[in-house]
Amino acid sequence: MKQPEIICINKKLRLRRTKEEDWKKALNWYQNPKVLYYSEGVTTKVYSMEVIKRMYKHLSNIGELYFIEVFENEDWKAIGDVTLSEKNMPIVIGEERYWGKGIGKKVISKLINRAKDIKLKKIYIPSIYKYNERSRNLFESLGFVKVAGNEKEDSYELRL
């Protein structure tokens, strides 16, 4: 099944397929040490555009990469990214002012439905840091179960 250009979640929230020329919008997110701490466990550096390009190319190759967009001031604004793949489902809300507003839950819920539509059998999350309670709670609240772990991180899976 072909990846859609737009997945509407509601009137103010959607997912939009990314294009390489749009990827520069993510630079500010991956320059934020808090974003990198929660998503990558990195505390000593920020991502360059070259690192973002490599990451997005990889994510595009393993699944469907989208920007998370909100409708604000009569226009759509990218605030994060998410990928749907059997191998991983990374999500980043890159704009801090949108943290804790339930956007992640709406996005992941919509992509779980998409995964069912395209006949994925499962979604595997290889790594969520133990200190990242928000992500752990998000995925657990949507039915993901812990399938492995170590002292630093846990892996989750959702059977569809």
TrEMBL record:
GO terms for molecular function: acyltransferase activity, transferring groups other than amino-acyl groups. Keywords: Transferase. It holds the Pfam family Acetyltransf_3. It comes from the Bacteria. The keyword Transferase applies. Residues 13-160 form the N-acetyltransferase domain. InterPro entries: Acyl_CoA_acyltransferase (IPR016181), GNAT_dom (IPR000182). The keyword Transferase applies. This is GNAT family N-acetyltransferase.
